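== Sequence and structure of one protein ==
=== Format: two labelled lines per protein ===
==== Data for this protein ====
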Amino acid sequence: MNKKDRVSSTLELRGVSRNFGPVTALDGLDLVVAPGELVALLGPSGCGKTTALRIVAGLEVATSGELFVNGERYNEVAANARDMGMVFQSYSLFPNLNVSENIEYGLRARKIGSAQRAKRVAEMLELVALESKAKSFPHQLSGGQQQRVALARALAIEPRVLLLDEPLSALDAQVRSQIRDEIRRIQLELGITTLFVTHDQEEALTISDRVGVMSNGRLEQIDIPDVLYNNPVSTFVANFVGTMNHIPTIASGDTVDIFGKKIRVKNSKGVNGSVSALVRPESIEVTRTSGSGNAKIITRSFLGASSQIICQTAEGAVIQALMPSHESGDLHPGEDVTLNVTLNEVLVSHV
């Protein structure tokens, strides 16, 4: 199976809610995943992202709202008839079946002929580069290999939609990065419509076409990663995606004063009084000063191409800056520096 052999599906949720007694886990979710698109739902535990995935899979029933695949209503379609491929964080492989048999399992359940099953298994083994492990059992595989088997099993049935439920959270950092890239490669190669659920912002931003940030059962913002990071629509999204400085300042009307510079406020127009300005580390400029500056360097951490500079202002605020290493090599702990914000507008939150 390759991209040109399949027609990707459109997945749509319209006003989908899910209540568990008095608790609203999902609150009127509207979401469209375009054919061949990978959309990640990102958010903290309890935000509703996994509930949404389970409703799409047919493992949960929506309290209200509708689910469509290619315009066909799926609310009443049984889970085993939905043609959804699902990969769980715990692998969920059958310990008594070898790799080939695990991949073949869904095909057998669908009563696919033996010749076609063998062909599909061979294709999947090649796709996830596990041909040499065909006869191995799960306990003989590494965590990364087990997750690749789980992915191959989900794809073997040629699903309309691929569902990924935090598939990388059980892996160590290096393997997680490798499998993450492998998932994206395969998803792009097959052109399969994919819904990916994670609490890890790096995973979501790295491999997704669009990322939806959820909070309290609602979709706060959904955008391409660049827009989500650079133009968050709320303080929740700004705080959840990436690192953010909270700089104490005073707001007056639609401006705040940060390090002596007047900057427009994106939100809360007309706010007055004490607020925190939300500024990314890379938007903090650090320069050496011959006299007394407005901050003192606490630490400089070399990160390769960039360096992290932690400073403390005279008022006691701790500020993190991120600079190219070749521009920060002469900055040392204990030195007085001048901080400046390179933005023209900022989000603020109330103190």
Remarks:
- The CA atoms of residues 54 and 60 lie 5 Å apart.
- The chain has a mean pLDDT of 92.
- The two ends are 55 Å apart (CA to CA).
